């Protein structure tokens, strides 16, 4: 759902998915620098949707307690989606058990 909303709102060159990010440089307060692969990205906003065991959360929010069990279980499924314009991407499906 998040990827779909971002794809609809942003130009394709502004959305990078599937990049492994290991650190975030916040030395300039108004910009964020994200090193990944063989380069780096500078941005005003970064959405790090890297799951429950987020390495970036602990770097960005060192005092955050982390995830807390809320009584439900989430199931993930991974698939493939092809867009009408020829693009293809991975897709995740979720379901909840209570």
List keywords for this structure.
98 residues, alpha+beta, 14% helix, flat
Describe the 3D structure.
Strand 3 (73-82) and strand 4 form a beta hairpin. The chain has a domain at 2-63. It has helices spanning 2-9, 55-60; strands at residues 32-36, 39-43, 73-82, 88-97. It has 98 residues and is an alpha+beta fold. The longest helix has 8 residues, at 2-9. The mean pLDDT is 76. It has a two-stranded antiparallel ribbon. A two-stranded antiparallel ribbon has the order 3-4. The chain is flat, with a radius of gyration of 16 Å.
Describe this structure in a few short sentences.
The protein has helices at residues 2-9, 55-60, and strands at residues 32-36, 39-43, 73-82, 88-97.
What is the topological layout?
Layout: H1 2-9, E1 32-36, E2 39-43, H2 55-60, E3 73-82, E4 88-97
Antiparallel strand pairs: 1-2, 3-4
- Judging from the principal axes of the Cα atoms, what is the shape? flat
Uncertain runs: none
Oligomer category: single chain
Rounded average pLDDT: 76
Strand content: 25-35%
Tally of DSSP β-strands: 4
The separation of the N and C termini measures: 21 Å
Main β-sheet: number of strands, strand sense, barrel status? 2 strands, antiparallel
- The Cα radius of gyration reads 16 Å
Strand order of the largest sheet: 1-2
Instruction: Give the proportion of residues in helices.
Output: 10-25%
The number of helical segments is: 2
Supply the helix-strand structural class. alpha+beta
> How would you spell out the order of helices and strands?
HEEHEE
């Amino acid at each position: 759902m998040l990827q779909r909303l971002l794809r609809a709102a942003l130009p394709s060159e502004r959305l990078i998915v599937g990049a492994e990010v290991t650190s975030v440089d916040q030395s300039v307060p108004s910009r964020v620098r994200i090193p990944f692969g063989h380069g780096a990205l500078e941005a005003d906003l970064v959405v790090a949707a890297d799951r429950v065991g987020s390495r970036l959360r602990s770097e960005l929010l060192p005092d955050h307690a982390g995830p807390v069990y809320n009584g439900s279980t989430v199931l993930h499924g991974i698939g493939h989606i092809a867009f009408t314009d020829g693009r293809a991407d991975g897709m995740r499906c979720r379901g909840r058990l209570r």
